[in-house]
Every structure is written in C-alpha cells, then in structure tokens.
Design brief:
The complex is a heterodimer of chains A (262) and B (85).
Chain A: E1 7-13, H1 32-46, E2 52-56, H2 64-67, E3 71-74, H3 80-90, E4 95-101, H4 102-108, H5 110-118, E5 124-129, H6 159-162, H7 168-173, E6 178-185, H8 189-207, E7 212-218, H9 222-225, H10 229-243, E8 247-251, H11 256-260
Parallel strand pairs in A: 2-3, 2-4, 4-5, 5-7, 6-7
Antiparallel strand pairs in A: 6-8
Chain B: E1 5-9, H1 19-23, E2 29-31, E3 44-46, H2 58-62, E4 68-75, H3 76-84
The chains are: A alpha/beta (262), B alpha+beta (85).
C-alpha cells in the first residue's frame, strides 16, 4: 500500500440497537446471550424495534424484557404464548414474540404453545433448548437426553423411568396452524448465522400475517452441565444435534418466497 | 494485501468464557492472566503484535455478551470508488 492511499476504519460489528446496553445475568459462556443478540439483529434489520413486544418466560431468560430494547411483558410459567395471543389480538399491527426455554415451553407450557399454534396465532416463538432446567439448579427437563446426568437424574436419565426427550420442532410442525417451524443450533459461528436467517424468516412470516412461527435453538448450559463453555459447545454438536436434527420442519407454501428474499 | 482490522473488548462486560478465542481463526485472543474485572472474571484480550487481525468479526458473532466491537480498515480510494457507483 502506498502512502498516498488514505486508510479509513469502518465499524463492521457492534451492538444492535434492539439490544439494551446492559450487562446480562447469564453465566459465562451461556448461549442465551447469542440468542438475544441475533433476535435483536433481526429486529434491527426488519426495522420493527419500535413496534415490537417481547414476552419473557419463567426460567433463566425471565429478565429478557430488560435486555431487549423493545416493549416487553413477563408471563406466568409456560404461559407466554397465551399472553402473546392477547397482546397480538389487541394490537395486531405490533410484532409480538415469546422467548422461552425448554422447562417453560416443553413442560409446564406445552399446552399453551400447542394451542397457540393450533389457533394459528400470528406470533413468533424463540425456543431455547438447553436440555436442562437452568435457573432452578440443573434438574431434568422433558428435553434432557437419555443418560444425561442432572440433579434429579443423578445416574443419568432413564427411559424406562421417565420416557424419551420431547422433540418440540417435529411436534409443532405437525400442527396445521404452524407457518414456519425450524430447529437451529448455536454451537459455532456458521450455525449462529444460519439460526439468524431462520429467525428472520419466522418474523417475516409474522409480518406477512401467515400464522404461527417458531425457531428452536439448541443451546448450552455450561454451569449445570458442569463443563467448560467450550466443552458445552462440543457436547451440543456431538450429543444434542444427533437427537435433535437441525433443519426446517414446516415451511408453509406462503413462507417459501420469504426465504428467498434476502 | 489482507484486510486489517482490530477489535475493542469491553473488559467489564466480559465473563472470560473463551468462546471468542475459540472462534478466532488467527488465534490472537487470549484471556488475561494478570488481572480480573469488577465481576472477578479474567477478561479476553486481543494479543496481536504482528497485526494479524482481519476484522472478520467471528469473535463478535460468537460472543454471548456482545463485548466486542469490530473495526476493519478500508482504503479511502475504494470508498470513493464505491461512492461513485
């Protein structure tokens, strides 16, 4: 480079406007932070931040309404889709999403999420699946893998005693009112970028009034899995992804054109 | 010439989880060993004496705490060319 060429610097990555500039309470290496950030980036890109309402769950993400720079509400355990239904029906011009963990969505709230989809509610759900109850101290969740050790399955989850882990994306894809159902993972940069595109499709489905959309995100819990953050990412790839395959499980015909528009 | 970049790490927000270091293709991010931040974590540091950072932003995409701002150098000549298009 010759000295005649001036060099300027441009910002290629910074905090999205839809994410509040505050520290989060999440443990080191927890991928909740990544999930928050990519949702916020999508809201920025779609330009809908000022008319978005997020509904927080009970669980580790209970304070999510503080972290998103949008309007927010806090639902009772598992009832975020019911609350989001009410909000969306009263304010149909607003973008409404729920942000729920697996203890919230797949256990106590499984009826709410299924019926929100059966009604074809025009809301978006971000479902963070880390195969454990995080906030309460690492108990077995419906999504805990067979053989996985938790504080309430100390010898590893037994299928004879507790059955099999529930695959929510596949379950929700079977419901007629679902417009877009996908499962993604957050275990490396490539998958994070793929997950962000799926979240964008889900919000576009809502903006086009096509019905219920959900993106399941395979996530980590280094604290309760009792591994390092790097080992937790490796475990998602080696153990969770084979049982919870990644992909699009339901793409309504009307959603397909939205996936090309990037 | 390869693109040059740099990152700024908000050390007080960093939780020392190492995911940025894991994602960095140039392996130029390390956790501090000589100091901790107010929360008691060893923050991530850019250790780049040979100016290997390309500003690829993979560290920032991997960071769960949005601690990293990424800058990339662009020759102003190119920018003028872009502006002319």
């Amino acid at each position: 480079m010759t000295s005649a060429v001036m060099v300027e610097e441009k910002v290629v990555y910074e905090r999205p406007e839809s994410l509040a500039d505050v520290a989060t309470h999440y443990c080191p290496g927890c991928t909740h932070g990544i999930a928050h950030r990519i949702v916020a980036e999508v809201l920025d890109e779609l330009g809908v931040r000022d008319r978005t309402i997020g509904v927080s769950p009970v669980g580790c993400a209970v304070l999510a309404y503080k972290y998103f720079n949008t309007d927010g509400a806090e639902a009772a355990h598992g009832r975020a889709p019911a609350m989001a239904t009410g909000i969306k029906r009263v304010m149909p011009d607003h973008v409404v999403f729920t942000y729920q963990g697996d203890g919230d969505l797949a256990a106590i709230g499984i009826a709410e999420i299924i019926h929100a989809a059966t009604r074809g509610e025009n809301i978006t759900t971000i479902f963070v699946n880390n195969a454990i109850y995080g906030m309460t101290g690492g108990q077995m969740a419906p999504t805990t893998l067979i053989g996985q050790e938790t504080t309430s399955s100390p010898g590893g989850r037994s299928q004879t005693l507790t059955g099999f882990p529930v695959r929510m994306a596949e379950l929700m894809a079977g419901i007629t009112g679902s417009a877009y159902i996908a499962r993604r993972s957050l275990h490396n940069v490539k998958e994070i970028n793929t997950a962000k595109r799926a979240i964008k499709t889900a919000f576009l489905a809502q903006l086009n009034g096509l019905g219920f959309s959900m993106v399941e995100l395979l996530s980590t819990c280094p604290t309760n899995w009792k591994v390092s953050p790097a080992e937790a990412l490796a475990w998602v790839e080696s153990d969770m992804v084979p049982y919870y395959p990644l992909g699009d499980y339901k793409v309504a015909e009307e959603v397909k054109p939205l996936m090309k528009r990037r | 010439m390869a693109a040059k970049g740099r990152i700024e790490i908000n050390e007080e927000r960093c939780k020392g989880c190492t995911l940025c270091a894991l994602a960095c293709p140039q392996t130029i991010i390390e956790m501090a060993t000589d100091r901790v931040n107010a929360k008691g974590y060893y923050p991530a540091l850019l250790v780049d004496p040979d100016v290997k950072c390309t500003g690829c932003a993979l560290c920032a995409v991997a960071c769960p705490d949005v601690c990293i701002t990424v800058y990339r150098q662009v020759p102003s000549k190119t920018r003028r060319a872009e502006a002319a298009v």
